[in-house]
């Protein structure tokens, strides 16, 4: 609402209560409640008090339901920078909005904690990111694994450990891999991984180099028996105009990587762990499900090594509120991965 004239903000819902502040004409206030006498409990700058509804008018400004942090941002107990910090929110964090103060600060909820954050660093869309980081817009490191596990036991061991230790891996199996697991074990690999709070993206059907195909040919290679989702990783990371045309045509975004362990080349557990552990904040690390990185002990060491450097790994999915028990990930990834 907006004030129609200069208006006193009072400690209670009547003129007998003390004055907290005087609001100039045109001040925007956030409404918390309405008393039976027509007075409103409102937020004005850092104050919460009561004002007569006679001098307040509804504004056409629509309060957004969700916003995204554009940088690391402090969540505070009040609507300016003098209030104590509740917690720090990473870049790209999604918050639920409940009110807006006249100072431009928003009352928001992040991971079950409610406070105030500056509107200067909040927008309706996630911050832009590089192709190598995909939808990971925060500081956590994402461990990703391409191709296909050697066995069902190897898959279950890795995703089971990840879920039990709050790790959210990103798997990029080929369509041939999915078909193989259905034939050999009678299971849906993608659904099995999602049920453990892990993310699954497309990696083509047969792992063909998309740059050797036309746009239409690349479309067929991405679809078919491949993972149906909104993010995909091109085989070999190879891209050209035709490949990009195919991704655009089927509405799939491209996610490559920022750290390549080259595990397929070294095939050495210690070296793979060392290279993955050297990741920086926000990195996407490339490994493969058929090599030594995709195992509980390797995951344990990588997570521990990163933690020793003050870095966290993407966490297992716990729903849109990002708290509680591990739950099944959606087939379509959100614009900002809730790591």
From TrEMBL:
Tell me one Pfam family matched here. Polysacc_deac_1
Where is the SH3b domain positioned along the sequence?
1-60, 63-126
Q: SUPFAM superfamilies given for it?
A: Glycoside hydrolase/deacetylase (SSF88713), SH3-domain (SSF50044)
Question: Can you say what this protein is called?
Answer: SH3 domain-containing protein
Q: Name one GO molecular function term.
A: hydrolase activity, acting on carbon-nitrogen (but not peptide) bonds
From what organism does this protein derive?
Answer: Glutamicibacter soli
Q: What GO terms in the biological process aspect are recorded for it? A: carbohydrate metabolic process
Q: Which InterPro entries match?
A: Cell_Wall_Dynamics_Protein, Glyco_hydro/deAcase_b/a-brl, NODB_dom, SH3-like_bac-type, SH3-like_dom_sf
């Amino acid at each position: 609402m907006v004030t129609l004239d200069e208006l006193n903000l009072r400690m209670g819902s009547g003129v007998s209560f003390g004055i907290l502040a005087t609001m100039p004409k045109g001040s925007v206030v956030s409404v918390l409640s309405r008393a039976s006498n027509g007075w409103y409990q409102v937020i004005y700058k850092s104050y919460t008090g009561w004002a007569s509804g006679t001098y307040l008018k509804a504004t056409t400004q629509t309060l957004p339901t969700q916003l995204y942090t554009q940088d690391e941002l402090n969540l505070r107990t009040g609507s300016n920078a003098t209030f104590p910090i509740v917690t720090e929110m990473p870049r790209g964090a999604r918050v639920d909005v409940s009110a807006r103060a006249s100072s431009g600060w928003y009352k928001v909820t992040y991971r079950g904690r409610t406070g105030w954050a500056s509107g200067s660093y909040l927008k309706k869309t996630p911050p832009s990111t590089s192709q190598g980081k995909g939808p990971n817009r925060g500081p956590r490191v994402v461990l990703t694994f391409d191709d296909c596990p050697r066995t069902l036991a190897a898959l279950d061991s890795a995703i089971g450990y990840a879920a039990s230790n709050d790790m959210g891996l990103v798997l990029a199996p080929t369509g041939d891999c999915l078909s193989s697991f259905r034939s050999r074990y009678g299971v849906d690999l993608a659904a099995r991984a999602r049920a453990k709070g892990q993310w699954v993206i497309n990696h083509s059907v047969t792992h063909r180099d998309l740059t050797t195909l036309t746009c239409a040919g690349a479309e067929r290679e991405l679809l078919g028996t491949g993972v149906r989702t909104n993010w995909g990783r091109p085989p070999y990371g190879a891209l050209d105009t035709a490949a990009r045309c195919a991704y655009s045509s089927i509405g799939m975004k491209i996610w490559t990587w920022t750290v390549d362990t080259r595990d397929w080349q070294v095939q050495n557990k210690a070296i793979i762990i060392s290279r993955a552990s050297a990741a920086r904040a926000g990195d996407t690390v490339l490994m493969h499900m058929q090599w030594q990185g995709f195992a509980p002990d390797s995951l344990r060491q990588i997570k521990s090594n990163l933690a020793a450097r003050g870095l966290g790994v993407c966490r297992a999915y716990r729903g849109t509120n990002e708290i509680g028990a591990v739950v099944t990930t959606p087939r379509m990834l959100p614009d900002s991965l809730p790591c």
